[in-house]
Amino acid sequence: MLEIKNLNASVEDKAILNGIDLAIQAGEVHAIMGPNGSGKSTLANVLAGRDGYEVTGGSVAYNGRDLLDMAPEIRAREGVFLAFQYPVEIPGVTNLYLLKASINAIRKHRGEAELNAVAFLKLIKEKAALVKMSEEFLYRSVNEGFSGGEKKRNEILQMALLEPAFSVLDETDSGLDIDALRSVAEGVNQLRAADRAMLVVTHYQRLLEYIVPDFVHVMHAGKIVRSGDRSLALELEREGYGWADENEPPETAS
Amino acid sequence: MNAAAAHYLEQCRALEAAGALPGRDAGWLQAQRDAALQRFETVGLPSQRDEDWKYTSIRPLTVKPFRNTVANGDARAAQVTPAHIEAARIDGLQSHRLVFIDGLFAEEFSDAVDAIATVDSADSAKPSDSDGGAGITVAPLAGLLDKTPERIEHTLGTVAPRCSHGFTALNHAGARDGAVVLLEPGARPHRPVELLFINAAVDAFAQPRNLVVAGANSAVHLIERHISVGAHAAFTNSVTEIALGDGAQVDYHLIQASSAAAHHVCGVWARLARASRFSCRTVTVGGRLVRNDLGAELAGENAHCDLFGLYAAGGAQHVDNHTTVTHAAAHCGSCEIYKGVLDQRARAVFHGRIVVAEGAQKTDATQTNNNLLLSRGAEIDTKPQLEIYADDVKCAHGATVGQLDADALFYLRARGLGEAQARRMLTFAFANDILGRIENEELRAALSDTLTARLAGGDAVDGGIDAGIDGGGKNVDGGGGKIDAGARAASNRESS
Ligand SMILES: Nc1ncnc2c1ncn2[C@@H]1O[C@H](COP(=O)(O)OP(=O)(O)OP(=O)(O)O)[C@@H](O)[C@H]1O
Ligand SMILES: [Mg+2]
Q: Of A210, B204, B421, B425, whose CA is between 20 and 30 Å from B36?
């Protein structure tokens, strides 16, 4: 589904991704862990097409097509979704309004009829219930005045509505209380399917107890320095990332 | 006196000579006109050498001689048809409406004046939901000055400052008509009063003069709208005076939506007596040169005024808002929020003055001016000016100038919205903050549609510019217009 080859990217002339190789097949969940500043969010942003991240080498193929060549909205419409580490507040635009514009943009892209107000409202209320979000949030400005946890939950609401084929969750678990973590994970797990894939960025192996990954990768200094199964997450939790500074990476796989 | 001033003086003189000015039997009015003429002869028209006109050139008003129109109902009817009036209607709005064409009352398009004018005390016995307009007079100024000038003898001309710029004097010297709205104490008509001013004739010079007197504890919604029929140039120089009695509440809306070739110099002056409340919303979406002088004087204790403004300008539009809030009494509050959206080569000026007089203790005044520059050619000059002569006051102000938030833009695009749509959504949200403060639902909806259309219209040009800049469909940060705000805003911060 997603094939990242030797991806290099820089921000303001500073090299941040230094040759990422990663292949994700449909149906898989991959987790990326790694110390602060190692480039996890940068990778997520590059995949979503954010301005200011210059790809200096390598390629990303999404279902065989050049992802990097697509405008951010085209990526979104093609089924790529980024749950932001820091969701943006947008005063004056209600959640409901954004979600409706969003799903209809995607439906239109797929050649489907736009949802009318009634159908949309019914659908969004179902999704809000699914991620255990009070309907009151639908009528508030996007993320404005939301608590940290509410923002994260709002990301998952969007994801549940848009049903993306490939999702990147950037520290969606950070700042969540136990119950929120559980319901967010439930929302995510609902979307697991043979034709979908996910890349989950997290610092905590706890999330991976709820969203069980097929692979765990360790990112360090803009590279994937280790890959393994979920036991790697447990090992990291015990031992930290100190080894990564001292040693050459033991192996690089994907 | 320069040629342009002489030209406009001549317009007034010609009307006077032709006996076309109303209320000729009222000596007090004649004295007022003479004083205004004299003042105009002394001060003339403002120039950019005047501090208050530094960023606004009145050249568009002087290179072309705008002229009085001939008072001829038939000629007017030919230009403005019932279809125009119908098209100008605000969907679903039930109002008492007076229509003026090039500054002259258009009876054929207005609600029956007599019916409104006479339903006062006799009608007040009716249940209020019938809303004939108990205790309210809505009448054209000329008619009222001809028949019963004494009704406004002690109010007309008492709110607008006598020493304001030449345009005010010009208006007072040569106004032919306008609207008078008188509310008896306690009158609270349900329906808003709508004053519709239409530019119709080519190069017409119109000088509407309006007066609103809200008796004690009365309440009214007023909508003053300026629109155009046709796209030709015109010049409207209007003055609206609003006197609020004790406990009165006036919700006033100034909607400027005339053609891109029409000019409007506009004075709105309100005086607030004890515990009265003046809520003013100014929405400027049309006009080539627009200059608004808005003054609110909090003259009695516990009065409060809200001044909300939105200007959305593109093309070569120039919109200048000069506001003055004068806290003359203690325990008053004022809240001012102006927002601007400027595209293409549009230019705007915001000058917000807050004066807190000696003795106006416990004043609570805030002022905000936020601007969104959508193109590199757009420009804003924003300047707060605080003059505080009392010591126990709360006074806050702030101005911002910026572009659309790149993070928000990306967030929307990452959710599948096209770039143009995302920009429109954010721009609309920014501006809609002001429209959201309009209580009248029908008016709010109509303005929201106008704004949406405007933003969609501006988009074509915007898209063209963007395509040129970004090439690869990547980075598009529309902004970067000249920003003059920061430095001046900062340097004026201590000006108390
Ligand atoms: N816009 C930017 N300008 C300058 N440096 C940047 C920018 N964005 C990211 N960086 C730098 O790139 C590096 C990687 O940042 P990134 O956000 O990808 O890290 P991360 O792995 O997500 O960290 P965390 O675990 O703290 O979220 C950091 O050193 C960061 O300071
Ligand atoms: Mg990060």
A: B204
Cβ contact B426–A51 (<8 Å): no
Decide if A77 and B416 are in contact by the 8 Å CB cutoff.
Answer: yes
Q: Is residue A254 part of a domain?
A: no
Residue A223 lies in a domain: yes
Which residues does A100 contact at the CB level (< 8 Å), separation at least 6? A115, A117, A120, A124
A253 domain residue, yes or no? no
Q: For residues A192 and A215, what is the distance between their CA atoms, to the nearest angstrom?
A: 15
Return the bridge partners of A218, or none: A33, A226
Please state the atom number of ligand 1 nearest to the C-alpha of residue A85.
Answer: 27
Contacts of B44 (CB under 8 A, 6+ apart): B1, B2, B5, B166
Per-position DSSP letters for B373-385, written without gaps between them:
E-STT-EEEEEEE
The CATH number for A57's domain is 3.40.50.300
- Distance of residue B402 Cα from the nearest chain A Cα, in angstroms: 15
Integer CA distances (angstroms), B6 to B30, B34, B45, B234, B255, in order? 21, 16, 9, 18, 30
* Distant-in-sequence, close-in-space partners of B212: CB < 8 Å, separation ≥ 6: B180, B181, B182, B183, B220, B222, B240, B241, B242, B243, B250, B252
Query: pLDDT means per 10 residues in chain B (496 residues)?
Result: 92 92 94 95 95 95 89 61 92 94 92 56 41 77 94 96 91 96 94 95 95 97 95 95 98 96 97 98 97 98 98 96 98 98 97 96 97 95 95 95 95 96 95 94 94 70 25 29 34 32
Please give, rounded to a whole number of angstroms, the shortest distance from the CA of A12 to a CA of chain B: 14
Cβ atoms of A153 and A136 within 8 Å: the answer is: no
Can you spell out the DSSP letters for B423-436?
Answer: HHHHHHHHHHHHHT
Question: Does A102 map to a domain?
Answer: yes
Pair B255, B224: CB distance under 8 Å: yes
* CB within 8 Å: B411 and A88: yes
For β-strands A90-94 and B347-356, DSSP reports them as: unpaired
The ipTM, to two decimals, is 0.94
Element (H, E) at B279: strand B277-284
Distance CA(B331)–CA(B135), nearest Å, equals 30
Which residues in chain B touch residue A98, judged by CB atoms under 8 angstroms apart?
412, 415, 417, 425
DSSP string of A158-202? HHHHH--SEEEEESTTTT--HHHHHHHHHHHHHT--TT-EEEEE-
Please state the φ and ψ torsions of residue B304, each to the nearest 5 degrees: -145, 140
Look at chain A and report how many structural domains it folds into: 1
Torsion angles phi and psi, residue B74, rounded to 5: -65, -45
CA–CA min distance A28, chain B (Å): 22
For the segment A123-164, what is each residue's pLDDT rounded down to a tens digit?
999 999 988 899 999 999 999 999 998 999 999 999 999 999
Q: How far apart are CA B393 and CA A193, in angstroms?
A: 63
Residue B29 CB partners (closer than 8 Å, separation 6+) = B23, B145, B149, B153, B156
Cα separation, B371 vs B78, whole angstroms: 41
Beta strands in B62-187 (DSSP E): 96-101, 104-105, 136-140, 179-183
Task: Count interface pairs A-B at CB distance under 8 A.
Answer: 83
Query: How far apart are alpha carbons A169 and A156 in whole angstroms?
Result: 9
Atom of ligand 1 nearest to the CA of A35: 25
Coil, strand, or helix at residue B145? Answer: helix
Rounded Cα–Cα distance for residues A136 and B275 (Å):
36
Domain that holds residue A48: 2-246
